[in-house]
Amino acid sequence: MKVWRYGDDVNTDMLFPGKYTYTCSTPDEILPHLLEDLDPDFAGQVKPGDVILAGDNFGCGSSREQPVVGLKAAGVAAVIGRSFARIFFRAAINQGLVLVEAPEAVDAWRPGDEVRLDLDASRVLVGDRSFPIPPIPPEILAIREAGGLLAYARARLEKER
CATH number of the domain that 135 lies in? Predict the structure, then answer.
């Protein structure tokens, strides 16, 4: 598991260049362009289970879904940030990507530290340190478990039939 660290105000154009907005819509089309202008190595090196540590206002900018779709498809386990743009936060819920606001954990990280997220205990573990986080609401966890809002809604409809 690798930790990818980025700073403040990483906007959606940095996460997924706007020039591809109308030509890339599937995860396979999106993945090669993830963070290409911010971190050209990311798309070729990210692995399932990797974690992103982010500064303030991560995901600001336009309201495209491609950045979240791409991060989810790449297998990013979570984005742990100081803060998130609200529209990006909602898009992450819709896609089942875990975002956690934990500024102390982000600030504590040093190169070489392992980062783990323990949702059951509501904690972020950075090296040998532990940082509490607010519990993630069960509804959001259910959306994540289902693979996103659309899959969650479909499953609920099937149960009701």
Answer: 3.20.19.10
Contact call for residues 75 and 49 (beta carbons, < 8 A): yes
Number of folded domains in the chain? 1
The label of the residue with tokens 């963070």 reads 35
Structural domain containing residue 7: 3-160
Tell me the per-residue pLDDT of 79-127, one tens digit each, with 9 for 90 and over.
Answer: 999 999 999 999 999 999 999 999 999 999 999 999 999 999 999 999 9
Sheet of 129-132, strands arranged across: 115-118, 123-126, 129-132
**Confidence band, pLDDT 50/70/90 cuts, at residue 1:** confident
Assessment of whether the complete model's pTM goes beyond 0.85: yes
Query: Which tokens go with 92?
Result: 């992450």
As a whole number of Å, the end-to-end CA separation of the chain is 41
Cα separation of 28 and 144, whole Å? 20
Cβ atoms of 38 and 15 within 8 Å: the answer is yes
